[in-house]
């Protein structure tokens, strides 16, 4: 494609995107296709000869778009939102136009510098302590692609830190004169390391431990504690494992769990971990962390403990934080913990600035070498919305969520909120008067869920299972285009289906 063809194709693509957004409301939220649908309409091999752009662009509209679930739809209430903005789309277009892997400062200084600046902006917007700013002496931050990558990256840093501590304390005896001895020592010490979370921690914890060959312990949490980790339960688990000769090395505490928006009690965790100074505390606030931008939500997020105590904190700006997928900032109290664990510098990666330590090379704080120019979309979005617009977006989601809760309270159908709503998430189930048997309720709600999926393509919700409660349904608000009328429409559909399921059950 030459420049002039690109100019025309680009204008046409923007037109198509605008039309897509204008018609979004009338589209089914979920892709209406069956597995394997695309193979039927796409050749088995790449074309031998290049094709006309118009044909390719038409195929995107006719073949690909029907297989896309519309996460930007105002009636998308599933999982957690995955916000995007036109500002973010334009940023990604520009980032693609200068496509480069930004691993060292010198390979594109703006890529590194804008990332560090926008991360200090967001740290300030969230009220994080200066300890986490890159401009601080020790702290730092980096944008990774996902909370999962964050968990693995942090776990590598925490593992290396605890191994260094164990070596210093000589907790595991070694003769480090031979390579085999070092490997044996590492293997032996690593096999004792335990990562902690709760039964409600996102699977990123289990996965990080699995990838790194570490143990993960999921501590039980209870409904009476709103499914948040309590200090006593943590202390008991740490003590039990220490008595077995294991070494607690990392805790993933969550602010805003996926199933119910639960918050682990960071105040109690802080107290307990005074006795475990080597335990790395990582806060996963993938969904709810953006609420730190709201002064009225900061105590719910235990900002004071985050600022005083935790080693690392991360939120996904690409969920409820307006920034186009993907964008997971990670803030660490000691950036050297990352770089000590992740720096490998062969000759071909050396630079004048790196050697002189006059610039940060972000490859040393992440798993991969190359990295996307993600900060541009943070910069465009925050400048265009302003911090005020960012706060307005979040408050709008919280208010619409309250509207949904008020609608449930009208009891047009016997829906029950099963755990106090948090952030913009409500977890509910169908609970007709007189039905007390948990098995019966479970069966009924599974049927309700099946019907919600099959009877209406106008809304999309997701299901979960909560301890002590069982099968229930999650309703999340957070798409920027959602309005009160969409919440009312969703409630109408939910009620109609609930009443039909009850009628069929009689
Ligand atoms: N943590 C929480 C609390 C989440 O809700 C999610 C995803 O919904 C994740 C982590 C995983 O996020 P990612 O897809 O960025 O790995």
Q: Key features?
A:
506 residues; alpha/beta; Aspartate Aminotransferase, domain 2; four-stranded antiparallel beta sheet; 11 strands; binds pyridoxal-5'-phosphate; pyridoxal phosphate binding
Please give a structural write-up.
- The chain has 506 residues and is an alpha/beta fold.
- It has a domain at 97-381: 3-Layer(aba) Sandwich (Aspartate Aminotransferase, domain 2).
- Helix content is 43%, strand content 12%.
- The protein contains 15 helices and 11 strands.
- It has helices at residues 3-23, 53-64, 86-97, 109-125, 147-169, 179-190, 204-212, 231-243, 266-272, 303-308, 335-342, 352-356, 375-409, 438-455, 484-505; strands at residues 140-144, 193-198, 215-219, 247-254, 280-284, 312-314, 328-332, 415-422, 425-430, 462-466, 470-476.
- The strands form 2 sheets. A 7-stranded mixed β-sheet has the order 1-7-6-5-4-2-3, sandwiched between helices. It has a 4-stranded antiparallel β-sheet with strand order 8-9-11-10, covered by helices on one side.
- Strand 2 (193-198), helix 7 (204-212) and strand 3 form a beta-alpha-beta unit.
- It is globular, with a radius of gyration of 25 Å.
- The termini are far apart.
- The model has no long low-confidence stretch (mean pLDDT 95).
- The site of pyridoxal-5'-phosphate has 15 residues, from helix 5.
SS-derived structural category: alpha/beta
User: What would the CATH topology of one domain be?
Assistant: Aspartate Aminotransferase, domain 2
User: What is the CA-based Rg, rounded?
Assistant: 25 Å
Strand segment tally: 11
The first-level CATH class of one domain is given as Alpha Beta
């Amino acid at each position: 494609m030459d420049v002039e063809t690109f100019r025309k194709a680009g204008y046409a693509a923007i037109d198509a995107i605008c039309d897509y957004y204008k018609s979004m409301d009338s589209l089914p939220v979920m892709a209406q296709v069956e597995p394997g649908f695309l193979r039927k309409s796409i050749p088995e091999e790449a074309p031998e000869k290049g094709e006309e752009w118009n044909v390719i662009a038409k195929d995107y509209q006719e073949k690909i778009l029907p297989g896309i679930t519309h996460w930007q739809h105002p009636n998308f209430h599933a999982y957690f939102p995955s916000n995007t903005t036109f500002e973010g789309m334009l940023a990604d277009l520009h980032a693609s136009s200068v496509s480069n892997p930004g691993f060292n400062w010198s390979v594109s200084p703006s890529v590194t510098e804008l990332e560090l600046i926008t991360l200090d902006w967001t740290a300030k917007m969230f009220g994080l302590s200066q300890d986490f700013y890159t401009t601080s002496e020790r702290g730092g931050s980096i944008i990774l692609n996902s909370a999962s990558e964050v968990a693995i990256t942090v776990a590598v840093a925490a593992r290396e830190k605890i191994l260094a501590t164990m070596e210093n304390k000589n907790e595991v005896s070694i003769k480090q004169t031979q390579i085999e001895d070092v490997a044996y020592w590492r293997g032996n010490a690593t096999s004792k390391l335990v990562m902690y979370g709760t039964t409600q921690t996102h699977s990123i914890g289990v996965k990080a431990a699995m990838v790194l060959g570490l143990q993960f312990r999921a501590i039980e949490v209870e409904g009476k504690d709103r499914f948040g980790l309590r200090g006593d339960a943590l202390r008991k688990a740490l003590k039990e494992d220490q008595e077995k000769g294991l070494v607690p090395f990392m805790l993933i505490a969550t602010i805003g769990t996926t199933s119910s928006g639960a918050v682990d009690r960071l105040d109690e965790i802080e107290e307990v971990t005074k006795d475990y100074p080597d335990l790395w505390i990582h806060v996963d606030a993938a969904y709810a962390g953006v609420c730190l931008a709201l002064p009225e939500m900061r105590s719910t997020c235990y900002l004071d403990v985050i600022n005083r105590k935790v080693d690392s904190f991360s939120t996904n700006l690409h969920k409820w934080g307006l920034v186009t997928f993907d964008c997971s900032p990670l803030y660490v109290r000691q950036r050297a913990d990352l770089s000590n664990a992740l720096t490998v510098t062969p000759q071909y990666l050396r630079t004048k600035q790196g050697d002189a330590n006059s610039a940060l090379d972000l490859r040393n704080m992440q798993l991969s070498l190359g990295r996307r120019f993600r900060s541009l979309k943070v910069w465009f979005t925050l400048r265009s919305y302003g911090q005020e617009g960012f706060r307005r977006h979040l408050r709008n989601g919280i208010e619409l969520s309250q509207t949904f809760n008020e609608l449930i309270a009208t009891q047009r159908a016997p829906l029950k909120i099963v755990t106090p709503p948090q952030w913009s998430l409500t977890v509910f189930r169908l609970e007709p008067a007189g039905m007390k048997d948990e098995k019966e309720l479970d069966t009924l709600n599974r049927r309700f869920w099946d019907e919600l999926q099959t009877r209406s393509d106008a809304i999309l919700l997701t299901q979960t299972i909560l301890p002590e409660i069982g099968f229930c349904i999650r309703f999340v608000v957070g798409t920027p285009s959602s309005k009160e009328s969409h919440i009312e429409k969703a409630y109408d559909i939910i009620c109609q289906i609930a009443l039909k399921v009850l009628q069929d059950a009689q």
